[in-house]
Amino acid sequence: MTMPAGLVVKELSQCQGGNWPSKILFKNISLNWTAPGLHIVMGGSGSGKSTFLKSIGGVWPPHTGTISIDGISLWKKNSPIQNPQALSKLGFAFQNNALFSSLRNIENLTFPHSKRFPGFTSSERSELAMQWLEKVGLQQSAFSFPHEISGGMQKRLAIARTLLLEPEYIFLDDPTAGLDPITSESIGEMLSNLLKGKDSLVIIVTNDPERAKAWGPNIHFLTNETLISPNSQQYDSIKESFLD
User: Fold this and answer.
1) Residue 244: its pLDDT value, please?
2) Which is nearest to 235 in space by CA: 208, 216, 210, 215?
3) What global pTM score does this model have?
4) Domain ranges within the chain, ordered by starting residue
5) N or C terminus: fewer CB in 10 A for the chain?
């Protein structure tokens, strides 16, 4: 049987700390999202938004359920090991940025790029990294270390590292978290411009109603252990509690 293209999730359930069923975060979530497209996921504190993103983005294996990318299972059968063929299509930006503190900013781009695209020369790779640093306004900080730049600049660096890999599926975990309103708006607008015209499927988790509305309209809400999507009967009432 041929599996459908896109991101296909079937009966996904996840618990906190492996304690099933006493600490269920969400259960029996199914979806089929295809590229190109942009989906926003919101939810209350502790609802499991980041866990949901890490589950469908290949970071954490699900407790139960299946996830496939263009018909390829994301996880090897009965194993917590990712399928490299599916993983190569993904790009993930973590909420805490997960930058390499011992590497210069430009090396934070060239190092992961060398792992995914080994055929580039060193000069080609560096040139590409500089182009992306310029896109996010960090060309003057290329040879600084992550701890030497601001939190907003670190967010920009993490986003550049993710998009540099040209992933078909992009997962962004709260890219404006912990930032002041002005910086948050600036990064939100930058991200919108960088994603414009891309053929990728993009999934963003956010706690920021203003950014969610700017990135919308495909806004989903993780609440009461399930994902409420725009076609759900209770969507309008849930939406009011988060966005109005």
Assistant:
1) 74
2) 216
3) 0.94
4) 7-89+167-243, 102-165
5) N
